Amino acid sequence: MTEGGEVMSEHCSSSPAPARDGVPVGADTGVDASRRAFVAATATAVAAVTLAPGVMLIGGAEAKPADQPASAKVRWGLLVDVSKCDAGCSACVDACREEQGWHGHGRPASDPQWIRKVDLKDLSTGRKLSLPVMCQHCTSPPCTDVCPTGASFKRADGIVLVDRHICIGCRYCMMACPYKARSFVHEETVGQKPHMPRGMGCVEACTLCVHRVDNDRLPACVERCGEAGTGAMLFGNLNDPESEIAKRVATYATTQIRPDLGLKPGVHYQGL
Amino acid sequence: MTGLRLFLAMIVLALIGALPVMAGDGLLPTIPKARGEKCVEDAAFMRRNHMQVLKHHRDETMHQGIRTTAHSLNGCLNCHAVDGADGKPVTVANEKHFCKSCHTYAAVSPDCFQCHSSTPGPDMPDQKASR
Fold it and tell me: For A74-95, what is each residue's pLDDT tens digit?
């Protein structure tokens, strides 16, 4: 998936040996630790699939009442159909900027970037891809593992957030994130959106538009992709077998970015 | 003795009568009137406990996604907005801002507005309607 990728290849250099295709599962000789983990992860995934039909986790797309906490019965996720995503389109990025109120200061290396378009080219075949990359809302997020204050946390419904009230701006989470999903606010900010407080000295990232999701609305990127983009993005509850996203994930071959890391992101990609 | 009591009562009455004048002189905070009919809690309770109420709600919203509006900072700002000379709600940079007016008097500097917007925004769409 990441072979020949110009942008993503930087992550490959720091990774353990990626899971290799063509090696018979169960071969004992020459098995390294990462492959063991890969096989174990695959076994877990298969077990989860066989369990799923008997378990009705949540019925329909019931809105969460405002006075109720987020539930672990819900697992919010995104599915990006890369074959539909157009290299020239940045509707999702524009929508995110407008919704959340972040913008650059002409310093690309340090400017906030909650979502970005990544263009890839497989050098061996010449196949070109374009896809949005944002916080992947991992099931086992490394950012929360390393956070010294507990500011990085995962909500019960799988949304990974930064609590700016306790973030000390150490940026350890930014180093831990293999997706380069987090940004640091270097500048004093004014004119914030009432639903999205943000200020100097804190780390921030995609919130999966938690303020909209809690109000039974789609994330801004997904909404805009459907209206002005190519309709490549799908949002939904991965735990609900009746949801469109769960059906698509169950029907088609999808993957996550760097699944070998075992972080089990909530963002799935189709056609990557 | 009766004379002394009468004297004290007169002083108290004189002070109460002078309160608006003192407020105008900056001796007491000038608290702008809110837009709503009544506060979400008793005014005396809110005067002492509003920060605890806000902090409790902040943690519930941030970590659990509880989005009731009664104790939210946005709820406060929507009701306690003060219009400036241009007819638009003033930011916390202006001394007339509801939070600022009292916190300046009390010499405390809460850092809410380093991140939070200090002006009311459009209400969250359909917060109640979709329930």
Answer: 999 999 999 999 999 999 999 9
Chain A interface mutation, best of B57, B61, B67, B71, highest count of A Cβ atoms under 10 Å? B67
pLDDT given at position B11: 63
Q: Is the pTM of this model over 0.90?
A: no
Q: Which residues of A touch B114 (CB under 8 A)?
A: 188, 199-200
Size of interface A-B (CB pairs under 8 A): 72
Query: Nearest by CB to B114, which of A191, A199, A216?
Result: A199
Give every CB contact of residue A57 below 8 A, 6+ residues apart in sequence: A73, A239, A240, A241
B65 touches A: beta carbon within 8 Å: yes
Which residue of chain B has the CA closest to A68? B66
Q: Which residues of B touch A156 (CB under 8 A)?
A: 64
Q: Rounded to whole angstroms, how far apart are CA atoms A112 and A135?
A: 13
- The answer to whether A64 contacts B65, with C-beta atoms less than 8 Å apart, is yes
Q: What percent of chain A stands above pLDDT 90? A: 74
Residue A154 sits at the chain B interface (C-beta within 8 Å): no
- Mode of pairing for the β-strands spanning A203-204 and A233-237: unpaired
Contacting residues for A122 by C-beta, under 8 A, at least 6 apart: A3, A4, A5, A128, A129
What region, left, alpha or beta, does residue A262 occupy, with left being phi > 0 and alpha being psi -120 to 50 degrees?
Answer: left
Given an 8 Å threshold on Cβ–Cβ distance, is A66 in contact with B60?
Answer: no
Query: Quick one: which of A159, A118, A124, A119 has its CA closest to A138?
Result: A159
Q: pLDDT digits over B7-63, tens only?
A: 666 665 565 555 555 555 667 888 888 888 889 999 999 999 999 999 999 999 999
B92: contact with A, CB 8 A cutoff: no
Q: Residues A125-173: pLDDT tens digits?
A: 999 999 999 999 999 999 999 999 999 999 999 999 999 999 999 999 9
Long-range contacts of B88-94 (CB under 8 A, 24+ apart): B88/B119, B89/B119, B89/B120, B90/B119, B91/B118, B91/B119, B92/B118, B93/B118
Alpha-carbon gap, residue A140 to A122, rounded angstroms? 29
Rounded Cα distance, B54 and B110, in Å? 12
CA distance A250 to chain B (A): 28
